Amino acid sequence: MSDTLAQNLRLRLDLSYDGTEFHGWAAQPGLRTVEGTLTEALATVLRAPVMLTVAGRTDAGVHARGQVAHVDVPRAVLTAAAGRSQDDPTRVLVRRVQGLLARAASGPRGSADIVLHSAREVSPDFDARFSAVSREYTYRIAVGHFDPLRRRDVLWLAGPLDLSAMREAAASLLGEHDFLSYCKPRPGATTVRELLALDVAEEGELVTIHAVADAFCHSMVRTLVGSLLRVGEGRRDAGWPARRLREASRDGEVVVAPPHPLTLEKVNYPEPGQWAARAEASRAIRTLLED
């Protein structure tokens, strides 16, 4: 086993993508997905099959500015893929993968809807999914003033929104709870999460909702946002989201906001010496979880 570990290396991949033209992260037969597109480019450059592990499986239409994944690659395969280049093999890999991504994408020549920013060797203790301590998402809303150049990542509302009521409602949802009322449950998966932040702010002409949690279950951020918007529009009182939380049921009113204004901003990790312990603890709590 030690010989196998010595022959392989783990690469951390940092990437961003415009989710508009993708059917989400997860590979699906016959559909264009982020995982499928990136896996194909990596396999083409490395001339070997690869399997990605990702920090957060974003839904169709959702964007990412700070997504993280990891992949295990035989050291000899990475070296061979660099060819005669004297540059670091990981930098060669990034350049060549990015070239394939740009050629495969629609849109202006030379651009791409996936950008692989870096690939760097990390210890086998690092797990892009389970070593993470939190994920951060931002939902962007334009109220009454619309910029057509931002229509792919901003929700347009005629308004107005009661931001004070939205902030009151958001505060009542913080902490560790069973978020079943705000998730699409999956078989064998827990819906208990710790919501670390849910901030409603004004940033220039936009209203933003910034959510941070140890992990998010399926559609959780969009359902939190949809519920806060019900409050902001005056269709529900500020106490309604907390009452829905306590019900812990999908049978009540479920409001899922559109996906396109949502962006995965950042994935946070502990210091390298804590990667293994964090991954072990996360697996114990969230076996079979889809984040």
From TrEMBL:
<protein>
    <recommendedName>
        <fullName>tRNA pseudouridine synthase A</fullName>
        <ecNumber>5.4.99.12</ecNumber>
    </recommendedName>
</protein>
<feature type="domain" description="Pseudouridine synthase I TruA alpha/beta">
    <location>
        <begin position="169"/>
        <end position="270"/>
    </location>
</feature>
<comment type="subunit">
    <text>Homodimer.</text>
</comment>
<dbReference type="GO" id="GO:0031119">
    <property type="term" value="P:tRNA pseudouridine synthesis"/>
</dbReference>
<dbReference type="InterPro" id="IPR001406">
    <property type="entry name" value="PsdUridine_synth_TruA"/>
</dbReference>
<dbReference type="GO" id="GO:0160147">
    <property type="term" value="F:tRNA pseudouridine(38-40) synthase activity"/>
</dbReference>
<feature type="binding site">
    <location>
        <position position="137"/>
    </location>
    <ligand>
        <name>substrate</name>
    </ligand>
</feature>
<feature type="active site" description="Nucleophile">
    <location>
        <position position="59"/>
    </location>
</feature>
<dbReference type="InterPro" id="IPR020095">
    <property type="entry name" value="PsdUridine_synth_TruA_C"/>
</dbReference>
<dbReference type="Pfam" id="PF01416">
    <property type="entry name" value="PseudoU_synth_1"/>
</dbReference>
<dbReference type="InterPro" id="IPR020097">
    <property type="entry name" value="PsdUridine_synth_TruA_a/b_dom"/>
</dbReference>
<keyword id="KW-0819">tRNA processing</keyword>
<keyword id="KW-0413">Isomerase</keyword>
<dbReference type="InterPro" id="IPR020094">
    <property type="entry name" value="TruA/RsuA/RluB/E/F_N"/>
</dbReference>
<dbReference type="InterPro" id="IPR020103">
    <property type="entry name" value="PsdUridine_synth_cat_dom_sf"/>
</dbReference>
<comment type="similarity">
    <text>Belongs to the tRNA pseudouridine synthase TruA family.</text>
</comment>
<comment type="function">
    <text>Formation of pseudouridine at positions 38, 39 and 40 in the anticodon stem and loop of transfer RNAs.</text>
</comment>
<dbReference type="GO" id="GO:0003723">
    <property type="term" value="F:RNA binding"/>
</dbReference>
